Request: fold
Amino acid sequence: MKTKAILAVRILVFSFPLFFPTLSFSQFKNAEILDKAHILVTYMLDFRQDSTNLDDKRSEEMLLFIGNNISLFMSYNEALNDTIIAELLRAEQRGVDRQTLINQFGASRGPLTRFRFRIYKFFAENRLTFHKYIIPHFYAYEEPLQFLNWQIIPGEEKVIQNYRVQKATTTFGGRNWVAWFAPEVPISDGPYKFNGLPGLIIKIGDTRGHYVFTLTSFEKLSSPRPIELIPGTSEVKTTRKNFLRAAENFRNSILIHARDAQFAPETQRRAAENMRRLNNPIELRAD
Reply:
């Protein structure tokens, strides 16, 4: 556990803000195919991770894979890393030796992502599951799928990305959200955990503009892509409330990890400063 904590601090200091490892070969080998995506929706997420410095604006592409019964939401960079690992696994199955694969994997790592969660929505079962790693555990929790109380605003319509959309509002995670959904696209889904409207969510953001998801493309896939559940090592089943508490505890304890690793005072300071900037998660609290 101490080794993982030391690694986390090193990454926080030098590669801020990623603080958990890429999934391993063995986890991919044990992946379970839940469904096959026939639609891929891409969103651009514009966000502010530091509420004390709102001029620090960042963006990242996010993907929504939609199957017949299940959807998966994750970052583009994470999906790219998945593809790299899958290619290396196929090479291993062709007889490429492990050291060569390790060398190739190290040289082929995709870009980092600030959003290493995976959200699965099980429409037929009316539930979603959230999966993420926080040192030293993989965590997973389940929620009802349609837990949001939407208010559709009559007469509020406009055009976004060539879709005629309607306005809806809700509260979630300590934020007030405004969504624009397209009734012409009869898919009751959207980015992150958002779902339950009579049409695909084209754009949604909190009223302070700290997190804004905007659709950039909608593609019907010519070749379906498997939606895989990749098991975490020693995954801890928990609740949303306890997960958010674990995430907050980790942010608060990073300086302790740096001291335990016997890093120089300047390194400890940088670790604490980098973590301090991660003060504005999507979910501020459990409702």
Q: What stands out?
A: Helices lie at 2-15, 25-29, 76-93, 98-108, 240-260, 265-276. The radius of gyration is 20 Å. Residues 2-276 form one domain.
